[in-house]
């Protein structure tokens, strides 16, 4: 920069008084001169008032000539030895007081001539001060301290004058700067201590030089930091007030290059650079750009406030280059090429060459400090938060804050999510500034000669004999060999220099490599980096990854260790500093669109094999092993999809000059083995969960790749409009396909939703999926080897995860949940070669895991432990539903039922096979917790009702029957269909009973229209905790296949007469013996009056007796006539007019009574309250009560599966406004071509008005209604996702345990549909279970049961309201007949389950990855209202889980997760920063969204499973609508028509 300018750093000439001072010194003896100077200085110092109390005495010096005599004497006094410390102190005091003439308020003791011309005399004084700073040679520490005190006073005085003087002239400024340069040169040059000439009797002085080494008592070491800080701070003041000319800048540059062996210089250089960079960035990028953190208060004000922006920019650039090339600090021969080093080498007997000076041993730490400074400046320009000078002082710092944040498992919050500034400069701009230094530092001691083949040899110990080597470092030069040859045994200096090898500079080199990685990893989407920079970067990375560190691996080399063909790191668990720095700072290398970065895969893979599979990793001391393994895991996850994605790609390793190319597909077995080996030894929970996510991705990717290959072999047309991403939804259950067969589902979807199987769609445009031919020999490469086939990976994953779950992961809740989520994902895979035995073992291991967790001691039981048990039960349910044939195995069925029994009751009936089983009534019901019992009940219900039958005939959209009371009543024979049918009207025709306080029976005794046989028929709607089913039952005396044969004919015919009917004897019975009339009466008989006597005495009685006689006569006459008629009809048998007629059929059966009786519900014990329960086993409900139909509707809309909603947004580059984001999905032309394919991979399309399941909005969920407009048609093919906005269609996916709706919010044009919630936060209070609409339903809803809000969750619970059930809020406001006495009764867990729905899941597609830091999640919350939110949702911060998806140009997708800051964090299988392939994107995103919601429910204390909520609603209805009847009344009620 200033090479054409001469330097002003000339030998010190004083003020022209050097000759006068020398003459003064030579003219008189030493003692006389000393006495004169001492007296003069003491007299002048005494008049200053410093030693005596009182004001200073006014100076009597009035003429310039007086000063011309005194000042040379004072200047001579400043050169006295340190033994004359009093004289030195007086001289310093006089000069410091006289310099106050430059201040606004000078001291009164200042002479008049100085006051009249302060700049002239100040320059003389400043020049004289030089002699004070000249080192006096080897002195004791006390003497050095006394000199340092005087030097500090002078520096404070000069610094005060520079800061506060208003009259400094340009010459004075230059003199001051030159003085500072000279004293720094005198102090900071290598030790040049002078010994006095003993012959002259003079004491030790600084004017004769003798090199005695760099001793601790050196004044330069003690004053180094102070003199340098004053120099730079004063220089900055001069730049603001009197900008130094180019010669001075050249002098500063040359001087600094002579001081580079001093540690303090680099520290001050970093300090000034950071202060200037802070100001520079502030006005270049604005206040929103992260600024450098400066903790020291003095450093905040180091830059003058009046310095202009142009001046700051100029000074920043010049100071940055003031020490020359920082990489020269790694070359001791260059640093030692100074006159001072040469003089030392000439005069010293120990060192032959200047490069052998002992002080050069500090060069490695100095070089590291310089690289830290450059690295810190890089971080500052990248906008890395918390960049500060303090970070540079950390020992061995090679990790920037951005890297530590991105690798930290705790840094999951939104505040710490942004690592780099959005307005940061481009990579090319930063590389223009710092690239030459960083690239050169990264290639220190590297052999850039290309290796002859792929076999990489260690560079350590192989320098000799490499004639063609082109060294980048001077350590291979002649000086190094000379120094090593001249070293003698026992020479301490020689021993120290012999240890200064290139490997000592690896820390600084690693710092440079880390800075380069951070620069390239800061590349924005669409940003172009110059190819020359990319090439240099790849070479530097290749060298950094392959070069070993002999300081930590010498023992391994001595043992004869040899690296493999692609191993670039040290084996046996040792990782070099450079490789570790690349891993930690380059975690994003393969997540960006860097051209040609795949050529680094073999090099990186070698280092990963060094780091990940080793249980005892020897990492650099400053770097935590966990952090290094996490970085390696991130890198591994980003390269896992490359072999299958670029199957036909041939890559050439960096640094190889052979023609051989390596197929990426050949690296897949190595990657899989590395992944499984890392899982076996990993102990950190966060790293383990990341590896589990990568393992599931490998298995799913391999399975789907094999499916696509098999489809290709069946000659499917590649011209059809297929969807490759929807093949990722292989576990998607549609009502039109088979749930368990992936092959069949692919055949079904081949018409338009499976995906293109052509070559161009599996990889980027430069790579063909179908082209598997080698570029060299034309051989066809295998797609998948047997060892890494889908089946092999499936088996390995099951064995590994199940074994680790039971052995070492069972105590960590997050790792256990991640392992169980992986097993659930494996269960849903359909692999052609899947072995049932492996699936059986997986279920067996799950049951063993549950049994072990339940058997842990009581003190180990906690909420987290029970969460793992609940998740294990869910995982077992998934396995059994996906593989129903497992229950056909008796051993597997017994194992499952045993663990169900353990979960429900807390113990097994038969612990060992030899034990006698304990019956149910003999065991104590003591489950591990209520959550565990509920999960076991859910598994039992799944085994009994879903395994082998899912999806049902109703489709996967509903587990319950779609029939309800109104539908059944419309199909009855007795229904006329003329009246308007409502829910209340329909309920009146049914009898309602509740059995076991958990199952509601709705019995219809009228036969349906399709039953013509007059059989006893009853139709039952059974509502239980696990759904609603409809059954029609008939009482038949014969099996159905025999019922068609009639047991009687229509006309049996006349019977033949039979005359021999026998003799009929008409014998009248006698009730008393005949002799009874002949017995005489006694007085006792006559004591009772006769009837005649009573009648005759009472006229009224006589009249009543006459009426009774008339009635009797009439009755006798009637009976006589009947008797005669009967005798007439029977006397002449057979009668020719009488036919044989079959008896009429019985039509009144009381079928409800028969059904309940046959099932044993009508016993007296069943109708009475028991000790265990206050509710009898069978209870009748009064359906005529107000609100019954409404509560029945609420029960039906309480889903028996978990429901979740994910909202999808598409963000174009640079967008941050909510309306702009939602407008992107209106047209397909405004979205990425793969976006719609991704949507199709999430689930299948359903119409919200014809869909009986969850739709993402409570107003349209769980009911089939007629749309308010023609919304039953297909989705518009030209939409960009707005067709799934929920107004007419949504994307839906479900299995037997959960369902999820995917909604794409879009702007509303025109009037919204009735089911659409308005996008206003003012309505958030009413978006839960809307009580107003429930109340408006009145008697039980309107026709069809539609139009009311539906809720899968419970209504909001107000903790302040003590009355009313916590199940539904309206029970605390309305009283219902007989339920008043029970209104304060509460059931189950009393907290609301609604709080579990106050979280949101966003799926955000990003065109530019940096937009994830500006995504307006909170502003979009009002567009994601589902109706399940609690009433206080808007008053508290919502938990938003965001999955960002960024499409790379190579066809892969980068994932970023945000918001997982809860205790049960890191839901898988997707991992933050993972790169996935196109074929599995939809599947993994859906599974991750489901697992996020499932983790949230596990963490919530108020969550209630769906079957528990349904059971509690049934119990609540029992309390509100129960008939209060005793047993006789209950039996009478059974014989009464429900309409009576």
Classify the beta-strand content into a percent band: 5-15%
> Which structural class fits the helix and strand makeup?
mainly alpha
Q: What is the 3D form?
A: elongated
What characterizes the major β-sheet?
8 strands, mixed
Which assembly state applies to the chains in this document?
A: single chain
- Roughly how much helix do the residues carry, as a percent range? 40-55%
Side-by-side strand order of the widest sheet: 9-10-11-8-12-13-14-15
Structural commentary:
By secondary structure, the protein is mainly alpha-helical. The chain is built from 51 helices and 15 strands. A hairpin with a 3-residue loop joins strand 10 (1289-1294) and strand 11 (1298-1303). The termini are far apart.
Keywords:
five-stranded antiparallel sheet, 6% strand, 51 helices, elongated, 1540 residues, mainly alpha, 42% helix, eight-stranded mixed sheet, 15 strands
Short description:
This protein is mainly alpha-helical. It contains 51 helices and 15 strands. The protein is elongated, with a radius of gyration of 49 Å.
Write the SSE topology:
Blueprint: H1 18-27, H2 30-46, H3 64-77, H4 85-98, H5 112-116, H6 118-128, H7 130-133, H8 141-164, H9 170-188, H10 219-241, H11 246-258, H12 263-285, H13 297-300, H14 309-320, H15 332-335, H16 339-347, H17 363-382, H18 389-392, H19 401-407, H20 427-442, H21 478-486, H22 492-498, H23 506-521, H24 531-546, H25 550-558, H26 577-585, H27 601-611, H28 625-639, H29 642-645, E1 650-651, E2 662-663, H30 668-681, H31 685-713, H32 742-749, H33 790-807, H34 813-827, H35 836-854, H36 863-882, H37 890-905, H38 930-946, H39 965-970, H40 983-988, E3 991-995, E4 999-1004, E5 1017-1024, E6 1027-1034, H41 1083-1086, H42 1091-1097, H43 1099-1131, H44 1151-1158, E7 1178-1181, H45 1188-1197, E8 1202-1211, H46 1218-1223, H47 1233-1242, E9 1244-1247, E10 1289-1294, E11 1298-1303, H48 1331-1336, E12 1399-1406, E13 1439-1447, E14 1453-1458, E15 1475-1476, H49 1481-1499, H50 1506-1521, H51 1527-1534
Parallel strand pairs: 8-11, 8-12, 12-13
Antiparallel strand pairs: 1-2, 3-4, 3-7, 4-5, 5-6, 9-10, 10-11, 13-14, 14-15
